[in-house]
Amino acid sequence: MRLSKSIYKRVFLSIVAILALSSCSMMTEEEPDCNPYYKVRFIFEKNMLFIDAFRTQVGEVDLYAFDSAGNLVWKGHEEGDALAEEGYLMDLPLAPGNYDLVAWCHKRHENAAGFNLAGGDNPLTFDHLKMKVEREYDGNQAHSSNDLHALFHGKVSVDLPETWGTHVVTVPLTKDTNCIRITLVHLSGKEIKEDDFDFKITDSNGHLGHDNLILEDEPIEYRSWFKMEGIASMIVPSPDDPGTPGITPLEDESRAVTPIHSLMAEMTTSRLQTCNAPVLTITRKSDGEEVVSNVPLLDYFLMVKGQYHRSMEDDDYLDRQDEYNMTFFMNEDGSWYKQVIDILKWRVVRQSTDL
Known about the structure:
It contains 4 helices and 24 strands.
């Protein structure tokens, strides 16, 4: 007896259903049923090397999940050696649906100050995920005099599917802290001591929203938390060898050598973006004179992006570059040589002597 096409079709669909059920049953050791499972992968590629440095740069993760109404439905925390493992994934125990995931990540170290979360340990809404730099006050002036621990942010919107299996969500991170080193070089050979100068960077960037935008804030002075004296040498050419003086090790005994004293100071700031205007001030403590006054840092930092990075958006460059170095020179007579400033590995010659 011949079977009709409709019977063949019903038999085929039955076989497919049986195979599907068998597939689910074969996975019971790892996944007890055919429900979907979700995991989160964190990456930190927004750096100048364009490589994922999450394993070495991040030591602590806090992840928050919000539903379509903006309410917190889950939060997770992980820290320690697990984050340094190859292929680390955080479990995301949510039902299928649409969510916003917000990550605040940290790299804490001894004696560093940090950031305060608006909602404390129990945030409930996006407003509770705002970060503020820890600060102290001299009268009405807010200041941060300690190193800031590294802070990272990530935010993605996801649609978690109902299909069974394991689904991995990727959360890219942006680093929100910057180390800025300022070096003073005295070409006269006069010593510079740690207590001779005060350094500060003033900005209003100490308040970050859940989306990592810089929010309105009071001006904060980021003061130097580390200073170090240094000494190098300058070879002075003889009349018979009129070369260009340069800072070198003390190795050439055929020419006169002048010691060059320097002082390096480190400051750590919150996120740098073109919507703000951080300025640098260096004050001589003996008489209160501002020997370097209100230098617009972003103008100089962006000026030296260079050929390889000139196509990069300014804010993208500022997010990727987290360390900056500047050098200011004093003339041999002790006055500041304000026309030349070294930034990173570039030398900027100013057309104006006003700082």
